[in-house]
Amino acid sequence: MTTASDWTWGKKHLTSPVTSVEFVGSDLVLSGNGPFLGIYSATKGVLLNDTCLLKRSRIHGIRVERKDGNLVLIFGQKVIRVVRLQENSSNSRISVEAVTDIVAFTDLIWDAHWLYSEEVPRLIAIATAHNAVWCWDWENNIKQLVAQCEEPCILYAARFFGSCLEHLIIASGTVFNQILLWKVQGKKDDVNRTPVLERLTGHEGVIFSMNFNNSGTILSSVSDDRSIRLWKVTNLSTFESNGCVEPLLVVYGHTARVWDAKLLETCFVSIGEDLVCNVWSYDGNVVKTYKGHTGRNIWSLAVNQSEDLIATGGGDGSIRLWPLSHPDHYNSSTVREACLPSSSSQACNQIDAKKNKKEDYPRFVSLLDQSNLLVMTNEGCLYKYTWSKQNNIAENQDVSPSSPNTDCLDPEDQWMLLLKDTEYSSYSVLALSPCHKIIAFGNFKRKNQAARCGFQSSSVELQAYSGKVHNLLWSQQHFSSASIFLWA
């Protein structure tokens, strides 16, 4: 008999919250799932590599070295490491090479940032949880405490800005609901501590995240108070002598705590505890809302270099990709509305806009192609609705939830009655074949019917069993004789 002591145990897979995501270029997506660094292809949707790099620590941050693109800094809790990505052209796989060992610090790490000397990434700046900054010479494994803020309070977030140590600025989000801006190599006081240059107030909860835009002219902050605040920053590179910060915008768009917000060229993106990813215009309007994660929390957020793709990592262990467009694209979208033709009318192209409670209404709607809908109504009428080409909704696929343009009852639109059968009134189900050429529908009288979408030939009716037809599902398989549909 085999006992447990004879078994061999091995780690095969870990499903846990995705606490960090980052893009390399416009296709590779890096993720932190526990101590594992996952590498995915966004275009192919496949996992290219999954490597355990931080042992017992969860990866909370991923920083790609942008000039080379192969060096990646990962950190979480109190440890940090540098790895190198290498592409294998023979099998399209990505290998991960550990450039440094795991290096531990005495405090939690809130941010890590590449620093350059003559365009070469020589040092890494590290912000820790009691408002201190370290520099790590990662090639020689030498670390040094370079600055301690005059307020050594507990931080919930920190963010660096600057490419070299001499001009490095840090924004610290404190437990006292404030954001402290200070220069790492700034003037020191009598006890060798660095003074705060600017103190930003307004949040009514602890600060969870901050981000600068690429030029350092705008700072975003998110908080336990469910707000997102934008701050206008002037002269950040010379902030110690003539810089200033002014409130720019305060928005509320999440129903729970906000975890992060990224500033882009034409919009900004936020995520929260409510499983929502919002896209905002800089005038403070939500132009797009994405939902898809389950459970609770979207923990991580990234946007690719071309700013047309969003990646979110959730508490459900999934990574989701969302398309990103210019806010004007969302605002110019059009919602099409149309009313069913009167059920007593014999003219297919006349629309009766005056509806009452007893008139017919849609039960099932299915998109046939870019210009046509199939509509099954409560009275057993199957219509094909064709909208005019000049207002083709294929050109306006994203619908703005805030201020849509409504185009109702276009006279160029047409209705065509394909079928009317009273046996399909009051209750019916509808399914369009994967090839969009055949439609199947069923009713509560155990009957199923199939017909070509154009109804050029007669339909076929089947009574498969005794019982109400609850659903219809087309098989994705293709057989030598014909495609089939299933009923249940």
TrEMBL record:
InterPro entries: tRNA_Anticodon_Mtase-Reg, WD40/YVTN_repeat-like_dom_sf, WD40_repeat_dom_sf, WD40_rpt. The keyword Isomerase does not apply. Keywords: Cytoplasm, Repeat, tRNA processing, WD repeat. GO terms for biological process: tRNA methylation. It is found in: Cytoplasm. SMART domains: WD40. WD repeats lie at residues 200-241, 298-332. GO terms for cellular component: cytoplasm. Belongs to the WD repeat WDR6 family. This is tRNA (34-2'-O)-methyltransferase regulator WDR6. It comes from Desmophyllum pertusum.
